[in-house]
Design a protein that fits this description.
It is a single chain. By secondary structure, the protein is of the alpha/beta class. The chain has a single domain, classed as P-loop containing nucleotide triphosphate hydrolases (Rossmann fold). Helix content is 52%, strand content 10%. It has a 5-stranded parallel β-sheet, with helices on both faces. It is globular and about 45 Å long. The two termini are 34 Å apart.
Length: 243
Amino acid sequence: MNTPAGLDRCLAFINCQISPPKSPTVGYRNGEDRLAVTISRQAGSGAHAVAEKLADYLQAHAPNPACPWAVFDRNLVEKVLEDHKLPSHLAKFMPEDRISEVADTMDELFGLHPSSWTLVHKTAETILQLAQLGNVIIIGRGANVITSNLDYVFHVRLVGSLEKRIRHVQEMRQVSAKEAAALIEKEDLGRRRFLKKYFNKDIDDPLLYHLTINTDLVSYDNAARLIGQAVLLRRSAPAAAIR
């Protein structure tokens, strides 16, 4: 869920890109300092909390402070619809955690929405555009695969035990343990299916990520700091040492 502060930061990011600073000393030097992060996650592993804390960390330590770091997750749907001039009612057909292939097929067959492949293609275009701007943290939606050829994008996977993830979802959504477990199962299955169907990748493949963090053992604050330090260290390391 996007916090009001997170939404404000996204608006500030978009406004900055629309009206960039006039000073030639502010911004990227031929793209060499451009940075972006993708976060893949197990449901309930704290991706939103880590992403917001990471945005704060990178805002304080990364270059180009004039354009704020922004987190894109659920609000990415609205960005896709806006970029491609699609009707707002399509938002309900775009979550990555849909698990019913039958529902997808029937909806497309009866013309209830564009092909799911079309929507994913448009989402991928928007993700690439955001990553190319830099100063973004993109959660889910195959962003790590979509941006895999951009060497300035850092890919993270967050995991955790089912027990602690259930507890986190209970606190965040105010539901029972049984409801939380069902939500986690649905979302994890849907995300696994999404990445396999549209990108032919296994979401649990460790080779898709630079860094995997177990948030049972690493606090959200420390996870954000670890990711931030790794992102900045990778930027400063020689190219041969990071490939």
